[in-house]
From TrEMBL:
It holds the Pfam family APH. This is APH(3') family aminoglycoside O-phosphotransferase. It comes from the Bacteria. It comes from Paenibacillus planticolens. Keywords: Antibiotic resistance, ATP-binding, Kinase, Nucleotide-binding, Transferase. PANTHER family: 3'-PHOSPHOTRANSFERASE, PUTATIVE-RELATED (PTHR21310:SF41), AMINOGLYCOSIDE PHOSPHOTRANSFERASE-RELATED-RELATED (PTHR21310). The lineage of its organism: Bacteria, Bacillati, Bacillota, Bacilli, Bacillales.
Length: 259
C-alpha cells in the first residue's frame, strides 16, 4: 500500500503496485520495491536537504544506458520537499545473499567479471569526475559541515574524529592514479546476479572517473564482511592482478569513511 503522498504524475505511474520498503544498504534515500502484475519497479525518495542528490544517480544512469546493464529511469522529479526517482528492476539476487555460500569461487569470478566490464567503459568524454582532487575536496567539505557519520566508521577507526582522519587523506595520498570508469560503491549488495551470473548493477550515485582501486578496495572490504577474507585472493586473481597494492586498498577504504 502506498505510504506517502507523491507528485500527481508519479502517482499515476505507481498506481496499482504493491509497496515494500527496502532497508538493505546505507543509502540516504528511502527505497521501495513496487510489485506489479507484469513487472517490478523501484522508487527512491530523498529529502532535498540531504548532502547527496538523486539527480547525480539519475544523470549517471542515463549516461550508462547501452553501456552496461543498469536500471532504466522511468521518472525523475521533485517537489518542495523531496526528489523522486522511479527505475526499472534488475532481476536477480544481490551478491551478498547467503544463498551463494555454496558457490563462492564462482561468485568471486563473477564479481571480477562485473568489475572488469565497468572498468572497460571508455573514460573519454565522461562528465563525472571522481578523481582524488574532487574526492578530497568533497571529504573536507563534509568534515567542515559536520556531515560525516563517525559512528559508521570501520572498526579499526572507531573513536577517531573525522577532523583528525581527514589529515590522513592528505598525508597518504597516492602519487599516481590509474584512471578508469568506476562504479564508486562496488559492494556486494550493488551487484545483481541471475542464474549464477552477473545480470546488472545498481546504486550509481558515486560513479565516475577514478583510480580502479576505488572499486577494488570497497569490493575487498565487502567480500571480507560478507564471506570472509579467504576469498579475496580468488577475486583479485580473477580480476587480473598479480599483486595487490595494499596501500591503495587502505587509502580508498579510508576515503569511503567520509561518504
Amino acid at each position: 500500500m502506498q505510504e506517502i503522498a507523491l507528485p500527481a504524475d508519479l502517482s499515476q505511474l505507481t498506481n496499482g503496485y504493491t509497496w515494500q520498503r527496502i532497508t538493505l544498504g546505507l543509502s540516504q534515500s528511502r527505497t521501495y520495491l513496487l510489485t506489479g502484475a507484469s513487472s517490478n519497479l523501484y522508487l527512491k525518495i530523498q529529502s532535498l536537504t540531504e548532502v547527496e542528490s538523486l539527480l547525480s544517480e539519475k544523470e549517471r544512469l542515463v549516461w550508462l544506458r547501452g553501456k552496461l546493464p543498469v536500471p532504466e529511469v522511468v521518472y525523475f522529479g521533485q517537489d518542495d520537499v523531496n526528489e523522486y526517482m522511479l527505475i526499472t528492476e534488475i532481476e536477480g539476487v544481490n551478491a551478498s545473499d547467503k544463498s551463494y555460500e555454496w558457490m563462492l569461487p564462482q561468485l568471486m569470478q563473477q564479481l571480477a567479471y562485473g568489475l572488469r566490464a565497468i572498468h572497460q567503459i571508455p573514460v573519454d568524454g565522461c562528465p563525472f569526475d571522481q578523481r582524488l582532487d574532487a574526492k578530497i575536496a568533497e571529504a573536507q567539505s563534509r568534515v567542515d559541515n559536520k556531515l560525516v557519520d563517525e559512528d559508521d566508521f570501520d572498526q579499526l577507526r572507531q573513536g577517531i574524529k573525522a577532523e583528525d582522519l581527514v589529515g590522513d587523506l592528505l598525508r597518504h595520498r597516492p602519487q599516481t592514479e590509474d584512471l578508469v570508469f568506476t562504479h564508486g560503491d562496488y559492494c556486494l549488495p550493488n551487484i545483481i546476479l541471475r542464474d549464477g551470473k552477473v545480470h546488472g548493477f545498481i546504486d550509481w550515485g558515486r560513479a565516475g572517473v577514478a583510480d580502479r582501486y576505488q572499486d577494488l578496495a570497497l569490493a575487498i572490504r565487502s567480500i571480507e564482511y560478507n564471506f570472509g577474507n579467504e576469498h579475496v585472493q580468488t577475486f583479485i586473481h580473477a580480476y587480473g592482478l598479480t599483486e595487490l597494492d595494499e596501500a591503495k586498498v587502505h587509502y580508498y577504504q579510508l576515503m569511503d569513511e567520509f561518504f
